Amino acid sequence: MCAMRPEPVHEPGPGGLGDQGNLVGQGAPRPDGQGEVVRQELQGWKAVLTPEEIRRALTRIAHEILERTHGGDQVVLLGIPTRGVYLARRLAARIGEFEGSPATVGSLDVTLHRDDLRLRPARAPQRTQVPSDGVDGKTVVLVDDVLFSGRTIRAALDALNDLGRPRAVQLAVLVDRGHRELPIRADYVGKNLPTAYREKVRVQLAEFDGVDSVLLGEGGR
Amino acid sequence: MKRHLISAGDLSRGDAVQILDTAEELESVGGRTIGKLPTLRGRTVVNLFYEDFYEDSTRTRTSFEAAAKRLSADVINFSARGSSVAKGSSVAKGESLKDTALTLEAMGADAVVIRHPASGVPHRLTNWVSGRVVNAGDGTHEHPTQALLDAFTIRRFFPGGATPLTPRAAPDGSAIVSGARSSSGEADRRGKGLDGVRVTIVGDVLHSRVARSNVLLLSTLGAHVTLVAPPTLMPHAVQTWPCLAGYDLDAVLRKSDVVMMLRVQQERMTAAFFPTVREYRRRYGLDAGRMALLPEHAIVMHPGPMNRGVEIAADVADSARSTIVQQVANGVTVRMAVLYLMLGGAAEEAA
Description:
The structure holds two protein chains of two kinds. By secondary structure, chain A is α/β, with parallel strands linked by helices. Chain A is built from four helices and nine strands. In chain A, the strands form two sheets. Chain A has a five-stranded parallel β-sheet with strand order 4-3-5-6-7, sandwiched between helices. In chain A, strands 1-2-9-8 form a four-stranded antiparallel β-sheet. The longest helix of chain A has 18 residues, at 51-68. Chain B is of the alpha/beta class. Chain B has two domains: 8-143 and 329-343, Aspartate/ornithine carbamoyltransferase (Rossmann fold), CATH 3.40.50.1370; 146-324, 3-Layer(aba) Sandwich (Rossmann fold). Helices cover 32% and strands 14% of the residues of chain B. Chain B is built from twelve helices and nine strands. Chain B has helices at residues 13-26, 58-70, 97-107, 121-125, 144-157, 186-189, 209-220, 249-253, 277-284, 288-291, 314-317, 324-343; strands at residues 44-51, 74-81, 111-116, 132-138, 198-202, 224-228, 244-246, 258-261, 299-301. The longest helix of chain B is centred in the C-terminal third of the chain and has 20 residues, at 324-343. Chain B starts with 12 loop residues before the first helix and ends in an 8-residue tail after the last helix. At the A-B interface, helix 2, strand 4 and helix 3 of A face helix 1 and helix 12 of B.
């Protein structure tokens, strides 16, 4: 189980709502120094997970996946672009270390299944890569960085439905920030992070952002 | 993206690359158990195809129709033929283009895909409908989605620009990965143009909207385009186009990565542009002998429908270097990308 340490919740400032769990390109301060313990407060962004904490959370999730799926046989980890894909790869690498055989990993783009397509300009879809033998009969673990409204996961379930019929679908997220708008919950959670609706959660990963961190920022500006 | 797709020249390099990248991702849809995406559910795409003696557009129309249906759009085919086939249609009864446009508008068309024998009609249509307009070929003017699918096909073979894909390993198009590493190659194409690829377009350039659109788009993407045609079939103002032009095919073939053979449009030949088909074939047709002049990695393209034995010999058309069948398949994919990018998102604010 995930330890629910009481984290200081940043009080929201006045202003607009953040509609996404992970806001990209919002000009957040990038904590300098890769790998070093980053706990700094800059311009309203507060680091809530250090690289070490992210590493430990992923290690724990990898063990939990192995435990729940009885050794990880027939498991396919599907990351949701962009950052979910890197998290899925990290989990697969850990499962490989623990069990000797690497887990199958791929990616699942949900852009074309989203329910908010008409609310913003069209974006190019990202890569979907599924194992050559498909997902039929497998246990699919969807991997994403932040679980917020649940709408991304709904879209992912639809996208998965078009690819085949998995035996079971589970969900692993690095951060669960609450405020679900659909009946969806995660099976594996790196950290439960109580937030106010208008706050923003930003996950950075070394593969994409150059640094590992989870930042909490106040909404609006 | 622009609001309408009328000319390949309207596309910036960024727009064009975005379309090609989107098409890469949409390609896998056709191969799935459920070859359909819900993305354009509730949107209406009208295929407005004016056909006459010059225009037999079944290929393009079915390609657009398949693309729209794979994205779950509702498709209305509004074909109009001056003579026999659609005798009952309102166009045959003398309805003007504007009245037809207003009818479509009243039906709530989100996009109109138009083919017309007169150049400039799609542009005109943009004044009369509120939906998006996609030019599916207008007279001798442009055919931008053909150019996009040609660019998509070329990028498959020249993923990093001028460096060719090694031995005739046709792109497999499979989106498969196992283990913790993504397959290279496919991902490498994303974001890339066609920098340095030498494309030679041969034949009836004068009447070819395919050539015009390709010159504009391929040069935007960084390719070096050379046009080869008999002097009578070369447009007068070709020196203003972003390409080279010449009359001697053999001289250019040795320095070509891609040869695109244009159809001899005999139906448009209202004057004697060349003495005989045999002489045309001798000087500008691609046969096995000429194909041997091409570099090892070069590919042969044709927008179809082919005149076998005129601009392209049958054994060339059926050779391993020919990408003609792939072009047709890529047509659906690229048209899906265009429809998705134009209709999938929020309507952009009027700029």
